[in-house]
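Work Package 3 (structural annotation) set out to generate three-dimensional models for the target panel prioritized at the project kickoff. During this period the team completed the workflow that converts sequence records into discrete structure tokens, so that structures can be stored uniformly alongside our sequence database. As a representative example, we reproduce one entry of 350 residues exactly as it appears in the project archive.
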Amino acid sequence: MQHLRTGISRAAAAAAPRPSRAVPAHALGRAISTETMRLNVPLKDMDPEIHTVIESEKDRQRRCVNLIASENFAPLSVLEAVGSVMVNKYSEGYPGARYYGGNEFIDQAESLCQQRALQACRLDPKEWGVNVQALSGSPANFQVFTALCNVHDRIMGLDLPHGGHLSHGYQTDTKKISMVSKYFESIPYRLNEETGLIDYDECEKFAMRIRPKILIAGTSAYSRLIDYGRMRQIADRCGAYLLADMAHISGLVVGGTIPSPFEFADVVTTTTHKSLRGPRGAMIFYRKGQRSVDKKGNPIMYDLEERINAAVFPGLQGGPHNQSITALAVALKMAQSPEFRTYQEQVMKN
């Protein structure tokens, strides 16, 4: 029996996963065949066609004046991070709680990105948290809806033809266009067509009738400032969460050139590649701490962090794009510089 136990112990030890060890570069080089090394040549040698396409697009961007407001130019430092070895790592989960080993540096990059996101928006980490794993703006909004709503709950946002965004649940009289409108009851509010402004009084009357679970303050084609304080009043009256989608204006918010939604919103979403000048991606900011008090004066606490994080992973995504998160950390450092503020001030002048 003792021999059997010893044999089992040795077999288990042999089968147990071993910690990764650094392999000397010279030893690794001997193990790579000449044929394999040919796979690791520069792009212009591996794929001249794609290299030509990229160079042509680079030339087009240099020659053309781009008046598309939702596009921008990522700085060299951001491009370097996007094209880094961070793309090689799988890291399902969140910092400190991953499903794969070897994520210590991925954790550092993501944690730094979160810290810089809060700093750039001048937020107290005791009152706000942020998820930086969302892949783009529309998925980020959908993740918020799935976190805070049940299927067929009501969502209220600005109508797409009046300046809203597709991801806020656009549909026509005959067809549900956005997936949001298929899973939730998306009901639009509209502009006053005589003034071209959001009609907050009509929005409030409508919200009181339909009682949405989420009220969206955000646009994609509206050139005026949003009265977030007024939207907060409407949300409180109808019992809704206030979601501010600042995807198009986040750089202006970070630069301090227009009012911030954070004072009033429960959740804030944004893309990262428009006025923020980062890589393609998105962030979801969520409130923490006390939300309100009940009738007896007892505090009612926010419970958004766990719900939103679970909606992102594992709810709708697998492994995050670590190269994008790393590049976003770089962009968020840049966004806190005096030069970035000067840049946003010039945008406003233009």
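Residues 11-17 have pLDDT under 50 and may be disordered.
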